[in-house]
Write a structure and sequence with these properties.
- With 398 residues, the chain is an alpha/beta fold.
- The chain has helices at residues 3-13, 15-27, 36-48, 107-123, 146-152, 212-230, 268-288, 308-322, 340-345, 377-394, and strands at 53-57, 61-67, 74-80, 131-137, 163-174, 178-180, 183-186, 190-197, 201-202, 237-245, 252-253, 256-265, 292-298, 304-306, 327-329, 348-356.
- The strands form four sheets. It has an eight-stranded mixed beta sheet, with helices on both faces. It has a four-stranded antiparallel beta sheet with strand order 10-12-8-13, with helices on one face.
- Strand 3, helix 4 and strand 4 form a beta-alpha-beta unit.
- Helix 2 (15-27) runs antiparallel to helix 4, helix 6 (212-230) packs antiparallel against helix 7 and helix 8 crosses helix 10.
């Protein structure tokens, strides 16, 4: 029996256990930087299956090693563990028991798949010509992101990781399918906080005031021209203002207007240029209209760029495992992921795992109160991670 066949067999044999794990995690979600019980459960599960692990890396992060790094290269698999501040509306036996917290981004699936991959890799450990480092990561959902913290804490060292894989649930794709894209895949994500200062007063006497509402209105429009006229046309870029607070009244012009938004780019050079353009525009425009502004650009996750060669290998391996009709090419996404920090450090491939089932009416979008998955995706996700790692350790040339 080949390594691939044994991996598939393992994930099939452990499916009921994996489903129980996923349901436990889904019912007990924890927010970013608070994953204490989740981490304890993961560590306990690993040790129950004879896999020693190291806890407390970058907070609640956990690592484990399968195979022998002295034999060859070390590759990594990453799964994130945190949940979102969302009230779950699903009515299932595994609905969240932590009110206002929900695994609405599928990190319960990611963690479960990585545990499933660990069991499959343990079954073929003697045949690995190197090692696989398992990375269970906290705090993907909040800046600065658990990936950056774990990297700073040495997660890619001792032994040195030469490449890494990560996967993410994808409700736009049916269960059993996967998708990937080489090169630019996901955007950087920076938060904009702007306070426009004017001089408030009676709305019937605007000549005596400096109206920050009017200034903010001009600024919102002008900021769109940063994208349309300053950003490189060939690189996808987005700037959106999502929150505006002007605490005046029908007859009151306020002293200030507070705005919040996001700026996203698919290239780090364009990202830096956009920061400069936004800063210049905010201060110059508000000053020209008699006001002033405070601006904070809170840097979030960087652009996620998949290694082209590794993604080709990933796609070929996926076709071997699942069949050509189940493997798809993806478009760019302007959403962001802190896996990008791993991709900046070593060659990486971050791909998508189909989780929807149209017949069962499973397919609510990510980050919504009705999100759920077809749990057969656990078999696909676990076997994919294990197979990619084994294939990379034994065959891929870095």
């Amino acid at each position: 029996m080949t390594i691939k066949d044994r991996i598939v067999q393992s994930t099939g044999e452990h499916f009921e256990s994996l489903r129980a794990i996923r349901r436990h995690l889904h019912a007990h979600p924890e927010l970013s930087f608070q994953e204490k019980e989740t981490a304890a459960f993961v560590a306990k599960t690993l040790r129950e299956h004879g896999i020693e692990c190291t806890e407390g890396i970058g907070g609640y992060g956990i690592t484990a090693l399968i195979g022998d790094p002295k034999k060859g290269k070390t590759v990594a698999l990453r799964g994130d563990m945190d949940a979102l501040p969302i009230f779950e509306e699903n009515q299932t036996e595994y609905t969240s028991r932590n009110e206002g917290v929900m695994h609405a981004c599928g990190h319960d699936v990611h963690t479960t798949c990585l545990l499933g991959a660990a069991l499959a890799l343990k079954a073929v450990e003697p045949e690995l010509l190197g090692a696989v480092k398992l990375i269970f990561q906290p705090a993907e959902e909040r800046i600065p992101g658990g990936a950056s913290i774990m990297i700073a804490d040495g997660v890619l060292k001792a032994p040195d990781v030469e490449l890494i894989f990560g996967q993410h649930v994808y409700p736009d794709m049916e269960v059993g399918h996967v998708g990937m894209r080489g090169g630019m895949y996901m955007a950087s994500a920076d938060e904009l906080y702007i306070t426009v200062h004017g001089k408030g007063g009676h709305a019937a006497l605007p000549h005596k005031n400096i109206d920050p509402v009017v200034i903010a209105a001009h600024l919102i429009t002008a900021l769109q021209q940063v994208v349309s006229r300053r950003a490189l046309p060939t690189v996808p870029t987005v700037l959106s203002i999502g929150k505006v607070t002007a605490a005046g009244a029908t007859n009151i012009i306020p002293d200030k207007v507070v705005m919040e938004g996001t700026m996203r780019a698919m290239d780090e050079t364009v990202r830096a240029e956009m920061h400069e353009a936004i800063t210049e525009l905010v201060h110059d425009l508000t000053k020209s209209m008699g006001g002033s502004a405070d601006l904070e650009i809170r840097k979030g996750y960087p652009c996620l760029v998949n290694d082209e060669s590794l993604t080709v290998m990933c796609k070929e391996a996926a076709i071997e495992l699942l069949g050509e009709e189940m493997v798809h090419d993806l478009d760019m996404r302007m959403t962001a992921e802190d896996f990008a920090y791993f991709a900046q450090a070593v060659p990486a491939c971050f791909y998508r795992l189909g989780t929807s089932n149209t017949e069962k009416k499973i397919g609510a979008p990510l980050h919504t109160s009705r999100f759920d998955v077809d749990e057969n995706s656990l078999k696909t996700g676990a076997s994919m991670m294990a197979w990619l790692a084994a294939k990379a350790v034994n065959e891929y040339e870095v």
